[in-house]
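Entry 14. Two folds queued back to back today. First construct below, sequence then structure tokens.
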Amino acid sequence: MSALTLSSSSAATLRADAVVVGVATSGSAGKAGKKASLVLAPGAEAVDKAYDGKLAATLETLGASGGEGEVTKLPAPAAGVKAPVVVAVGLGEATDRKEPVEPEVLRRAAGAAARALAGTKKAAFALPVQDPEAVAAVAEGALLGAYSFTSYKGKDSSAKKDAKSAPLAEIALVGAKARDKAHKAAAERAVVVAEEVHRARDLINTPANGLDPKGFAAEVRAAAKEYGLTIEVLDEKALTKGGYGGILGVGNGSTQPPRLVRVGWSHPKAKKSLALIGKGITYDSGGISLKPAGHNETMKCDMSGAAAVFSTVVAAARMGLRANVTGWLALAENMPSGSATRPGDVLTMYSGKTVEVLNTDAEGRLVMADALARAGEEQPDALVDVATLTGAMMVALGARTFGIMANDDAFRTAVHEAAGEAGEDAWPMPMPAHLRKGIDSPVADIANVGDRMGGGLLAGVFLKEFVPEDIPWAHLDIAGPAFNEAAPFGYTPKGGTGSAVRTLVRLVERTADGDLG
């Protein structure tokens, strides 16, 4: 990952290959007869001076609008700025220059600038960093934007091409004070969070032939050894002995057997505990209910929930958070074969409930149900599951927002607040009681699918059946934002995004503070 330094030097005098400044739109075209114009954000003063105070006017001439995430590059003046290139990144509409810029606006702007500087060795970021929150946002955004996945690039790839596309190597935060404890702590946290988001992204982007359940478990085992985590891996024999019918039912069709991994961080002064459960379908063909052509190519990402949970537990350990955090990774490959579960089969779950499987492509809820029931036995203060669970949630909320359901309104609010504090788009969703009748089964306790309408909500209703009633629980359906098939934007790359890692880390911090809603 890119190196991060805090610098008290002037943006104009710092030795770098590029200097990044922020610009915003002041006023609105056609509003009260005024024309929208560009204004420079705090931090750009020294660079503007080198342009004789005409940097904003020059950018306007080049067509810059100041819109969020817009990147404009221009040569630095012959004298006054040591970096040869100035990069202006849009912050959107300016309200009051004295008011701090919203952290997520800074995060996205820094990410857009970092992406635009691929192939660059060092860039000075002279964006507004008036307080530790702003330092964290700029650092996090730049680090998240400087990402690429090259593990499977061939050895004969052009070195020149690779150099031009390599992530920005070094990020210097101008105006952030290395000797300020709050600034330093904000930067250190940003490094850990970004590295763990990158860990999740790497896992998600790894093709299924490079990451099966056993391989995923090995990755967790290696990290557990490195960071002092506890780990327990249940293989197919242990799953059979333990009665994990959901995980086994999904994994039966594959030659790669399933796993249930428990990985934990505990702090000696912790007063609260949080259990996180992640869906880890390393490849989802749909099973016997095979997905149609065109819907299979990205199904390596169906383990994004497990990747998020794993990365969060590691982050908690690296940050030394005063909370006991347990991650449960329900790992399986969903494949069609002679041994695969068939539509109409009945599975006996870990909880003892029986489930009629009407659609083998609704497999995530089956592995999650077993993991939820097992995690609940340890009586944590709260349970949170994370899953790329339903296409219906994407229909409801689009590709950039995940849904939050819960059995406790206060806890759902706490999770939603954590997402907002972390800068991730999320929305609280209901679980109407009347939907429960839709998954009644004539032959088993419950069916794994029901009415098509409200399918995302119905999946939450199904999972609720396996959660102890006395434990606050939230379900995060990250099907939309987990994998970006469109063009990169802000700090979000194409491919695996690491969705929910930042929300979960923030939730662990709130757990450490005793603030679970």
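Second construct, same run, same settings:
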Amino acid sequence: MERGQLRVYLGAAPGVGKTYAMLAEGQRRAERGTDVVVGYVETYGRPRTEALLEGLEIVPRKTMDYRGATFTELDADAVIARHPQVVLIDELAHTNVPGSADDKRWQDVERVLEAGITVVSTVNVQHLESVNDVVRQITGVPQRETVPDEVVRQAEQVELVDITPEALRRRMAHGNIYPPEKVDAALTHYFRAGNLTALRELALLWLADKVDDQLERYRADHGISGTWEARERVVVALTGGPEGDTLVRRASRIAERTRGADLLAVHVTSSDGLASAAEPANLARQRALVESLGGTYHQVMGDDIPTALLDFARGVNATQLVLGASRRGLVGQLFSRGVGVTTVARSGPIDVHLVTHEEIGRGRRATTREGLTRRRRLAGFLLAATVLPLLTPTLAALRGRLSMPSDILAFLIAVIGVALVGGLYPALAAAMAGFLLLNYYFTPPVHTFAVADADRLSALVAFILAAVAVSTVVDIAARRTHDAARATADAEALSTLAGSVLRGERALDTLLERLRRTYGLTSVTLLERRPGTSLTPDRQRDPGRWHIAAGVGDEPCATPDEGDADIPVGDGLSLVLRGHPLPAAARRVLEAYAAQAAVALRQQRLEEQAEKARPIAEADHARTAVLHAISHDLRTPLAAAKDAVNRLAEPDGARTEADRARLTATATGSLARLDHLLGNLLEVSRLQAGTLGTAPQPLAVEDIVPRALESLGPSDHHVDIRIPDGIPELLADPALVERILVNLVTNARHHSPTGERVLLTAGSHADRVEIRVIDHGLGAHPPHHERTLRPFQRLGAEESHAGAELGLTLARGLAEEMGGTLAPGETPDGGVTMVLSLPTAAPSASHERESPA
């Protein structure tokens, strides 16, 4: 069966008109004769939205019971059984009630699509998984209902329902989105103009990325390789030279001129990985610079650099390419046009910028390609000096038996042997000596350097050419073998370094220890220049100019001059190695380690700063939460009390005694609620400031519980007290224990259904007395129990600023102040059990038992 199509209406925030647009689409399709049904739509009581439901068939929802409450959900099975052409399903990111066939509504939608039914749905940008953390930073509100981006990206159509922040706030103020009692809070918090602007930009950028993906797929499907300038993309080519920083900044300025342009940096390496003039430290620094400017870094392979650059640029649909002007001198440019000129000639519609820089004309740093060691060259010369004098008389004694070609082959074998041992230069010397010996001893007339026969002269010339060619090939092979071995060692070291980065190992000491072991060093020290000091040659050796940022091994270096190798990192850091001299070829790997060490040091210090700032951030979060709470919870009782008092102050008129009593009770209850809230706020402040004093004394549980319940007053929820005999006395402050019990029982009543009893029990275990307050309300799911004890949380609340529920926070703080604990648990038949544990006044073995709850 062919899969159905998915169409999604994307919005930046609630109220932009996604559901309205979805229903309007359904009406249009129904008018065209399409079989359209409504699977699930939330109108939130909006008249204009409800009007669009008229004439559309609605598939009944399924009803589900959960924790004593009734919920309705999309009936995907009923939709599939009805099998319309199009179904309208609202709120794609919705989480289904536990016990449903699928956990998420988008999974229901997947089943409907697999049945061949087209689905039209809605989603807000804050519910997309990839931007969920960004939305939380912007709005301060975590979104627990999310949908994977891939689900929306696979939709055949994604349409943005857009509205300006000002228009959305007007729509909110007119009561077209939320009920009037929620308007002020929404406009003050989530629906601030700045929040809406940021969310709108997120929605636009996300949709732009999807459109870009669709464009790339279209170009790939139709084999279009040319550049389409639908969006500016600036590619900067990096060689690993010092001029790369200038090129990156120049490319960034070019990209900034076109808002929304992409910046990409690319480095081309040779396919064999052996010949490269790139400095790893430069590339690491330039990569960090590109990423700090909002760009991305890429590395490609290719032996023809202009072709590789242009292939990459066309592959990413780049519009502009930034290159550095050639560093070669005038002589070098005479023999080759260079990368820049060649790239310009082949670029086609891509604009190429050749940027001048300070390195022009200084030439490229030649890579050091060591051949054989000096000892092997010397051995080659000694072999040539030994073998040729021995070979000459031996062949002379066999002159009558061997022909001239045989003599030439014998000398050629000797030359090859010398080349294998000593390389090119000993082999060339052996070839010249062999040419002269063959001419003098074996070419008529012998014992002269004259050659009477042209054929023999040709044979001698062929010998010298073959000897030189073979010697050159052998020497090149030896060099390439040496380079390959060195590159393998470097690759292993860099692979280990890259692996540590990918695994998230950023410990600086671990990195330095790995470097020390890799090269067998005595110590590795990362030195940092002290602020305000200059590095003249005489001060380079002054220990007072440096301090050790990190180090491993014995005898750390106090200055760069004390080590066997010094790798500068930027202007203020230097990696100093001690143990033995290192080859120049190892410097590239050392520079990569030095660059990573600088990053690790920076990361370490940022983590330290973040750790120091965490208490400040937490305090700021608490202050923000207090403001949110006060704006909600203080306003409500004040408004109710003010309204009741104002009505009582009006002329009596037709007001009855029952009305006056009701208004008086309203005012009294509101003021009591306000007094309770302010008391909790003050107590929490005293706890946080550490100024709360306690006076512990022995207390009997059966005495303190009734006093706490008396202060609560009447309620629809009766409290059953079940305290067995023999409970030992607890050691605590009586006023604080009473306050804890008041808050726990108040919380249990608040979350219990009307008329439901709250159970209070007590027991003892070892040297602790445990008091349990048990309710049977909806409560919070077990994973969220601990969250209910944080400031400004409510059981089952969706937003952290929903109110100032400080009772449980205060209760835990008071318990801990007296050496006790307060922990939430799950009531077996539904609800939450709060367990207060306090030390006993006089522990006794006879009391080491636990009473049934």
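Quick look at the second one. The chain is about 45% helix and 15% strand. The chain has a mean pLDDT of 78.
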